[in-house]
Design brief:
The complex is a heterotrimer of chains A (313), B (335) and C (665). By secondary structure, chain A is mainly α. Chain A contains 13 helices and no strands. In chain A, α5 packs across α8, α10 packs parallel to α11 and α11 packs antiparallel against α12. With 335 residues, chain B is α/β, with parallel strands linked by helices. The two termini of chain B are 17 Å apart. The chains are: A mainly alpha (313), B alpha/beta (335), C alpha/beta (665).
Amino acid sequence: MATFVTKRLLMALATVLVVAVLAFLLVHAMPGSPGAVSLGAGASQDAIDQLNQSLGWNDPLVVQFFRWLGDAVQGNLGNSLIDGRSISTDLSNRLPVTASLAAGATVLSAIFGIVLGVTAAVRGGLLDQLIGGFVGLLVALPAFWIGVVFVYLFAVQSSVFPATGYVPFEVSPQEWAMSLALPVITLAAGGAAFIARQTRASMLEALQQEHIRTLRATATPTWKILYIHALRYASLPIVASIALQFIGLFGGSVIAEQLFAMPGLGQAVQSSVSTHDAPAVQGVVVIATVVVVAVNLVLELATKFLDPKLRAS
Amino acid sequence: MSIETPLRHEAGASVLQQPLLEVRDLVVRYGRRRKAAAAPPAVDSVSFSIQPGETVGLVGESGSGKSTIGKAILGLQKVSGGSVGFQGEDITHANAGKRRAIGSELRAVFQDPNSSLNPRKTIGASLAEPLRVRGISGAEARTKAEDMLERVGLPRDAVDRYPSQFSGGQRQRISVARALICEPKLVVCDEAVSALDLSTQAQVLNLLADLRDEHGLSYLFIAHDISVVQFLAKRVVVLYRGQVMESGLAAAVTESPKHPFTQALVAASPVPRPAEQAERRAVRESLGVRTAAAVAATPGGCPFRQRCPLATELCAAERPALRRVGASEVACHYA
Amino acid sequence: MIPTLPATSRKTALTKLSGHRLINSPAGLAGTLWLSAIIIASLTAAWWLPYKTEDQDFTAVLSGPTAAHWLGTDELGRDILSRIFASAAETLGTSFITVIVGVGLGTLLALAAANSQRGEGIISRVTEVMMSLPGTVIILAIVGAVGTNIPLIMAILGVLISAGIYRVILGQAKSLQNQLYVDAAKVDGLGPFAISVRHVLPGLATTIVVQSALIFAVGLLIQAGLAFIGFGPPLPQPSWGGMIQSASQHVYDAPWLMVPTGVVLALTVLSANAIGNALGKAAHATASHLPSAAIRRKRAGQAVAAASAAPPVQDAPEAGKLSVRGLSVGVDGGTPLVTDVAFDVEPGTVLGLVGESGCGKTMTALSLMGLLPTGVAVTSGQILWNGKNLAAATDKDMDAIRGRDIALISQEPMRALDPMFTVGYQLTSAIRRLRSVGEQEAAAEALSLLEKVGIVDAKRILKTYPHQISGGMAQRVAIALALSGNPRLLVADEPTTALDVTVQAEILSLLRSLVKDTGMSVVMVTHDLGVVADICDHVAVMYAGQVVENGRAASILDNPRHPYTLALLAADPHANSAHDMPERLATIKGQVPQPKDWPTGCRFAARCQFAGSACTVPIPLLPSGTGAGLVRCVKADELAMEGLAWVPTDVPASHRLDIIEKDMA
């Protein structure tokens, strides 16, 4: 077990490193030198060259990368080319927004997905078909469309929730929750559908296992067969699908943040890509990767713990 | 520790010939380096040979390595040590090209009739595949396939049908046809009738016997059931945990087994006559063989020692070599 | 097991790509129609669209549907319908790039990985890394580098998605690679590439098509999402996502704008998903061992109806005696699987139900516990136990019987135990439930039960999970579990078939001593006549859903009366020892008929050496003349009198055999 954890930790580290290299290369493939981006249109070529020189843009790529890496491990991701702000500071302010969004949406979609999936598998019949149809619709509707409709229904028509904006938790926990509600529901809709499908399939597969017959043959109550034994058997693929969902939702937050004007990582990616703010893009890609890889690692260890066969080995 | 072919073998003349198949000190280990070194090998220094026209049975329980030996001979399993010789040629590590060259003479029938034919190909296409690989034209291959189907008792027009249109027994006949279509010298039958019901099993066993007599074939007949093996095989090799325990004429091994494991195996195989079965049961219970222990196999010594009523310290210290006891070769210090 | 189809045709049905499945599914059909319609409409858009994409109608800005603008107009008065269809071709086409790259690359990787273990190790590592990346963020970073070059972006998306496709396909590719026909091809000398192309790839066809449809939908959604956040095709070119984005700006003043594009996008995604689901649907899914609540409700209703319809129990109830009378089991919808089966099991005796596969012996055994698979039910007859008719009992009634009165052990002990819980947990929770005792008492009882079934280190075994013990050990545990309610009857469904012969002997000895010690009775389902000889007091030989002969095991095995029993014994190589092994074994021509093909007369007549004109009418069970034995053969007396034996008649292989063809339809 200990060697497994070390192995996985090393893998995760390697993943982050590979992404850092890729992001670095991508950023260097972006059109326009940092000097040109920073000084904007109309700057003289001399001024641009001078700025590029001082930013180390003309150094060999390897030197630049290790300089960036050395700074990055000390928590310094450089400064924005657009407004000169520290990227680390900016992202550390943005991370809680996206993290709340993604975590909230993952938890919500897990709860709804599991309940819907288990219900469909266990009840069967008409209810199964209804849930199947509903889930199919949720999968097909784009999140941004659902989001706009939510805004129309809950913010425009009835103003239950604020349409846009984010209130930090420190300012007002209640308003924080209200400001998160619509984006989280928007994000969770598709995720819940995905998890519901996985849950239904895993539950049905679990109920096909022969040990279910043994349980029935020893007069095990139905609720116990369903919710202790079958659900336990089905839990591995369900947890795996939740992990995948978190990765997807973390990325999906780009759209939700744009739609609901949330100052999160997604918005930072979107704006830094549009403005060709190279160090900002690089920083946000690496931070996003670190978060996703870390959460994935935790969930993978959880899966490992759930499976007695893996736990023993 | 090679097993001498008994000189009293009925096909007396063939003894002087070069063996058709010669397996020498075969070792197969599963897993990667460190794992493989820790566990005892799946096949541990197994040697035997098959003369032209002879059928040898390989008997053992699950984990005895019998199927692994078959796979190693067919090139489906990497060999860790020892050699496999076919018609005097070393084929231990033969590549696909070499396999193609000998593939028409060394063929196989596998256990599961459901998976041994590609469900998406017609019977004709499956039968023609070994011929087409060897450059025989489509029309000729088709005619040969039709002839072969007729020989195994199926209608000629079966060539255009799919495996799902046949029953398990019929499919196993088709597998036999596929093995024999290249006019082979040796057919490895790996649990070829184990998945079949009694009456169909008998059909396929009869078919195998008929074809052997017609063509002078050799079989390596691998099975867990010693009674099935002794229907076809004159000589049997009994395996336990990858090692040869006993080998000799089928009649001798089953009627008067010498190795404690063979004794247990024979006594445990039930006969459908209640009175005789009661006697067998009494014999089995008097043997005092211990239950298949949950303890993992440990390398060194006799692999059967943990279950053996005769086991002593010697058995843990020293792996018994095969030696002649009566008419058979037995690997036991005390047989 | 669903007995309506032979196992094999079920298997092929699962793997064959079939257009029928698409047409047979309403959603799949609708999806195909919509997708074809939208593709045709978009390709021909130039000829029929009422407006150009940039035509502005200032008289109708942000209008709803009108005669001039069927789907309304946007903030610049541009016709929505025209813009949707003008941009459809490119949207669909570029999504297809993702499909080609993603599914193509994923399939290639899976084929390569299935071919070599080392390759699999490397590829799986890499794809794991790819799957744990925040894909959207990376795609955006790529957009930053290469600009909004949609085809290129969609291709790169395909590369990222290929990791997931690889995961889906790998398992199947590996299982195809492990098929014996691949081994056979290797023996033929086919190289790895040829095997992948000829034997593995065709088997993946369904999965590839299904995944393509699903990935197409994903591509559409992601592409629209990119356009929504401003990374769509360069303006003024319209795109679905871009149109929804601009519609979202007008959600306050013109909410209608959200509808047309959103619905078209959603319908297209739904269609692709529906096609994928319809094609990927398993034709015959394995039956659930616990039917859904909806089915259970229906069942309960049927049981009540059957109970009220059944004649009252007449026999005086005798404790611990099982009497089965006129039992018929069938598939819902008609096909019978077991007809008119009758037998008695006295306390302390072992009854063998013996026959080849497809004879209905397992169905008979499972009906005793009310555990028939979903879709199969008792259609008539009585199962009398302690004065109750179990055939008409509800699931709830059965719960009072299961485990406490009648217990079950099955063929594959490993699969019969729950892999997620320890042996100890499974045993103690059953004991607590069935004996109504406390935790500690149950734990002590579990230990003593394991010792009773011959497990030496019971303490250790209690702590293990099923995968940590051997098959023989697992069957002992399964027997201990069956004993946890002190049952009076044990239903054993081929309990030793999956075990080695030396282990089988041990398990049979254990069962025999349990019968002796506890006085319980056993119904033993087996195909092995040797097992019958070893442990059974009585035997019922089954053929094609009927009992064809029953009586004392000793008299039937030593002196069989029914031609089928005769034939089975003659075909069994175990009946002969090495020195008297015959040249040929007896065989029975043809095979056991499918339930739908059962004749009205003697069901064995078509395969019987002794069949005559008297065999074409239904044959009742008649006294066989040996003890209380019964035999279902009109010629039994004649055969016995003349001492006829089943002779090995099958013709040498060079002659054509008479085979029963399956219909070619």
